[in-house]
Amino acid sequence: MNYKxxxxxxxxxxxxxxxxxxxxxxxxxxxxxxxxxTVKVHEDNVLVKDALSQEGHGKVLVVDGGGSLRCALVxxxxxxxxxxxxWEGIIVYxxxxxxxxxxxxxxxxxxxxxxxxxxxxxxxxxKQMPVNFAGVTFVPDHYVxxxxxxxxxxxxxLSNQ
Length: 161
Hints:
161 residues; Glucose Oxidase, domain 1; two-stranded antiparallel ribbon; 35% strand
């Protein structure tokens, strides 16, 4: 489905919250949206991999990496896993790597930046809890939509309205 975030903001001004414009586009899809699933980690991507290994049709994984710019939380292997499992997109409050390969994949991916160093693998963090960054709270089972203009969140689906 094609999402035009500016149009959704115009059509539903009381339903949407707009994230601060701090993210860059990295995936092969610029517009994506779906039901929110979350993980909160610090320089450790085990829970990210666990989430993306699950079926993700109609969902967007929101990764609260604490804004760390010291390592990548998603690379081409995890992006491919997400694509294979039907995820609509990934939003990373942190870094990714393998950006050239990810740009060729049919998935939406927004992150702060790139970093060549992989993360640690301790399995620490939390999943399916509200996370707050970029001026908004991402709540599991609420909805997120993104395109090249930005990111919005809503308590309800906006795709069939």
